[in-house]
Specification:
The chain has 174 residues and is an all-beta fold. 0% of the residues lie in helices and 56% in strands. The protein has strands at 6-9, 22-28, 32-35, 39-54, 58-61, 65-72, 76-79, 83-91, 96-99, 103-107, 112-114, 116-119, 123-127, 132-134, 140-142, 146-152, 155-156, 159-160, 167-168, 172-173. The strands form 2 sheets. It has a 17-stranded mixed sheet that branches. A 3-stranded parallel sheet has the order 11-14-18, with no helix packed on it. Strand 16 and strand 17 form a beta hairpin. The chain is globular.
Length: 174
């Protein structure tokens, strides 16, 4: 997508489009995608977007996913490779993100809010503009080392992981 363009995915298809899963080789370079409903399968070329917003539906990627701003309030996303954000990460509601590889979450624009997240590798969470928080009733798990770092205005900020299903298999550093 070109920079500044937001594409919405989901809803009732308009002819000649047909209902059902959509499969593509890769997605992005810039621009934004709002996933409302439906199923979007991305191949090994992965996903690279300025913004990904999801309130429903399913996103799966066989490749790496690199997002500027990630916002998820519903639906599910699965990534076979690595997953990263550079500007913001906000998970709320019933959304889920499952990453097979390394997960690197960075926020330079407000608190970093975790929800239902599984990382198959190292989980690095770096909030440079507020605390790291986990929404109540969500599950956070990491198969590898978990690294947490939060600051606001150059001063340390809180890390609050309080989900009942939080499980970090490797070492945790905060």
């Amino acid at each position: 997508f070109p920079a500044g363009v937001n594409v919405s995915f989901g809803g009732t298809p308009v002819a000649p489009a047909e209902a059902g899963p959509v499969s593509i080789d890769s997605l992005g370079q810039h621009g934004s995608l709002t996933l409302l409903d439906g199923e979007l399968n991305v191949g090994t070329g992965g996903v690279q977007l300025d913004l990904f917003s999801q309130s429903g539906g399913v996103l799966s990627s066989a490749g790496d996913v690199a997002i500027g701003r990630f916002e998820q309030s519903g639906g599910s996303a699965s990534v076979a490779g690595d997953f990263s954000t550079t500007t913001a990460y906000n998970q709320a509601g019933n959304g889920t993100l499952a990453v097979g590889g390394q997960t690197t979450l960075r926020s330079t624009d407000g608190a970093l809010l975790l929800g239902n997240l599984h990382s198959g590798g190292t989980l690095t969470v770096d909030s440079r503009d507020g605390p790291i928080r986990q929404h109540a009733g969500t599950t956070l798990s990491a198969a590898g080392t978990t690294l947490l770092s939060a600051s606001h205005g150059g001063a340390p900020a809180d890390n609050t992981l309080n989900g009942a299903g939080t499980a970090c298999v490797g070492s945790v550093s905060a």
